[in-house]
Please model this.
Amino acid sequence: MKFKIIILFFLGGFSNLALGQDLKPEYQKFIKTFISNVKNEKKEAVADIISYPFKREYPIPTINNKTEFIKRY
Model:
């Protein structure tokens, strides 16, 4: 009986981890726009969103400006 109670406690406690967090509407709009731009290969629109320099981990070099981003897209 104790084992069942413990299992139910853990399942109830960790059920929140399975649910996604709600984002503010302005963030939702930004994410949807970004995903749409990437899916439709709108390089210019994606490049406008990025802040430069766009630092990457070694061995991938940093992207210093919009032109370089579009070239390496």
